[in-house]
Amino acid sequence: MISIIEQAQNFGDKTAIVLNDKTFSYRKLLNSSKTFAHKLLNGRDDLEEERVAFMVDPGFDYVKTLWAIWLAGGVAVPLCLTHPFPSLQYVLDDTLASVLVVSPAYKSILEDYTAARNIRLIETDNTSPVNENHDLPDIDSSRNAMILYTSGTTNKPKGVVSTHANLNAQISTLIDAWEWSADDQTLCVLPLYHVHGIVNVVCCSMWSGATCRFLPSFSAEAIFNIFLEGKLNVFMAVPTIYFKLIAYWESLPANEQHALTDCMKKFRLMVCGSAALPVTVMEKWKHISGQTLLERYGMTEIGMAISNPYNGERKAGYVGLPLPGVAIKLVDEQYAEVAADEPGEILVKGANIFKEYWGKPEATSEAFTTDGWFKTGDIAVVEDGYYRIMGRNSVDIIKSGGYKISALEIEEVLRTHSQVNDCAVVALPDHEWGELIVAAIVANSADIDLKELNSWLRTRIAAYKTPRTYLIVDELPKNVMGKVVKNDVKKMFEDKY
Ligand code: MLC
Ligand code: AMP
């Protein structure tokens, strides 16, 4: 049995999910998931780790679909709801998904594609009768559970395969460390194709019998209105979201500010992560909410690894200490452990670590040391026992709005534009977004229309991956080997803006 679903059997009529004005109990969630699992099985005994992609709105249908895939023995592949077609197609092709589940609103985007590839397309509101008179398969925790796509130093995102055992470790560690309980009520505002939303918010709340409310897309006003109802006590978000909430709070009249502050003071936990939390944002948030944000560090491949304490000092600018069950060491370029107080790359070991990159054995073996430590590519230092993240070892990995973005992926697409001869994508520090994506372009025509270029780009890559500023240059700064020197590209932007 799958641990999270086994847990849910303890919570019967308790409210699991709130979406708009509707509530759904754990019993309803379990029963609907089982019925939908039979639909996915379509008479078979076990999907045997076939990949089931799903493009489903956040809420009851999302969790029902996720659990149904697991109950049927499939591997869940959540798709981004706003990605342009080529990005969706990439994931479907890469995973060789045999089934696609969609909310009705997304059917038209992928209908022709699935028909051409013989992929079964099922809508979440499918009402066709199903025979439920046979057992669902028994799922061993060593089986693959989920594939999430993450960018890296290759131009195409890689599928991170996690087993049920990996997810169980990631979830149960956080439940203990952050003291989740069935009394908790949280709000999910994060996209549901990354670990932050899926594991930390949805899976942790469902495992512990808590109530998870969903807000389909980000809106500071809507979040604060839900806060004001006074039911929530746990909230998790990326630094950009806290930045935006602070800006919105500051725009409100004093009486509304006070009402919000009073209600936020009653939360038991507010967590921030996925990108560095600026100390100024942490301090301002403390001022407006009375909450000391708990900053933690994680990654798609490992779930959460380092966290400030739930009980104990939460230090601004630090991500805290290794979570129980997660081994961490800092190493130099030869993978030898660095001396205390020296910075080094974070290596991680534990039951939380993913199994492999989907269909990429070379990338998988490169990601681990010979003795099995996962190389995060993040540089950190330990000061007074607390870890401080100093940055990444690759300039080509950008974190913007909490999303990990490959500069190389954007460059690759930009170079296919008829007016772009060459380009270099870099990130500049930014208070709101963490990093801002910018691109230097060598154009083959003086009248290149940058607005048109950006719209063109958005039909090929997600909007959050598109550069915010372009600089037209005669040539890119290169070293003697002909390689673009990204730090010099950054400097060109800094000089200009
Ligand atoms: C959007 N905009 C950006 C931008 N993204 N501008 C600069 N940089 C970016 N990265 C602009 C748009 O062009 C638009 O401007 C305006 O912002 C609104 O766009 P939007 O797409 O509607 O954005 P919004 O809904 O406001 O989203 C912001 C956000 C979102 C912060 C809510 O980015 C988000 O949900 N991020 C969370 C990502 C996440 O969950 N990461 C976890 C990964 S897991 P205009 O001018 O057109 O209006 C992980 C592991 C771990 O990292 O440790 O957790
Ligand atoms: P992703 O691949 O989207 O899961 O992003 C993981 C990356 O986010 C990590 O490798 C870090 O670079 C970054 N990250 C996550 N949490 C933090 C944090 N608290 N501070 C700084 N960087 C973080």
Quick structural gist:
Helices cover 32% and strands 27% of the residues. The chain is an alpha/beta fold and 497 residues long.
Give the spatial strand order of the biggest sheet: 2-1-10-9-11-12-13-14-15
Give unreliable regions as ranges.
none
User: Into which percentage range does the β-strand content fall?
Assistant: 25-35%
What's the shape? globular
Q: Cα-atom Rg, whole angstroms?
A: 23 Å
Please report the distance between the alpha carbons of the first and last residues. 57 Å
Which secondary-structure class do the elements indicate?
A: alpha/beta
The average pLDDT value, as a whole number, equals 97
Biggest sheet statistics:
9 strands, mixed
What share of residues is helical? 25-40%
Question: What's the total helix number?
Answer: 15
Ions, cofactors and other ligands present here are:
malonyl-coenzyme A, adenosine monophosphate
Question: What do these coordinates show?
Answer:
The protein is α/β, with parallel strands linked by helices and 497 residues long. The strands form 6 sheets. A 9-stranded mixed sheet has the order 2-1-10-9-11-12-13-14-15. Strands 4-3-5-6 form a 4-stranded parallel sheet, with helices on both faces. Helix 2 crosses helix 3 and helix 9 crosses helix 11. The chain is globular and about 70 Å long. The chain starts with a helix and ends with a helix. It binds malonyl-coenzyme A and adenosine monophosphate. The site of malonyl-coenzyme A has 25 residues, from helix 7, helix 9 and strand 13. The site of adenosine monophosphate has 19 residues, from strand 13, strand 19 and strand 20.
